Amino acid sequence: MPNPLADEARAMTDAELGEAINESYREVFNLQFQKGTRQLQNPMAMRQAKRQVARLRTILRERQLAEARGEPIEPLARVVDTEADEPEPEIEHETENQAEPDDGSPSEEA
Prior knowledge:
- By secondary structure, this protein is mainly α.
- It is 60% helix and 0% strand.
């Protein structure tokens, strides 16, 4: 199952990704401080913040390894945009109003 947080992170540039990692580390630090002073309202927030740091660092490392191998790095946002640009085919539904009236004459199909 695709992770929307990881998809958003893969669409970021390296500079944006580095800033997001720093922000996530600050969040973990603040949550640890709140936990120490018994002010932490949501204990799951600590776990979520740590996982976000790990997720971001993993994506950054994937890029570093791909660059070392010489593989091109294709941002996810470009792939998603090309799929969204394609128009969906229109399906024509025949309704009773669009049907030809039956005047009793033999039809062309018969």
